[in-house]
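Field reference: sequence -> structure
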Amino acid sequence: MFVLSSLLHTIMPSFSIVHYLAYTALIYIAMGGIGFFLSVATRYDWLTLAAVWLGSRLLRTIYGPKQDWRSKAVELLPPVHRLDDVANSLIDRGTAQTSDIVWLLGYGALFFALGLIILRRGSLAD
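Structure field:
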């Protein structure tokens, strides 16, 4: 890892392994929490996770800017529309908007907790 990090730092002087690992941890918690919940709730966890992730990005693109009930409903979907901005700012500068980070971490943690509650009562996928 050190060799790869040194090589990337030589090619791209602004590259920092610490910033990249921070972004990786954020995505791990955000996607991992939702993935854990889906693995407890269904047998097709990775397929469902991909559908949730892509579907939420697509629905936010279509209905997000409108001012009707559908734009309010897509606010309940995972905050994948903020990932690009968080990735760019966190990897480049090492900082990102606190609200975006809290939103992603909170969403992942909430679904991880929901998955634990369902798992305690018995898996839905059985």
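Note: Residues 17-121 form one domain.
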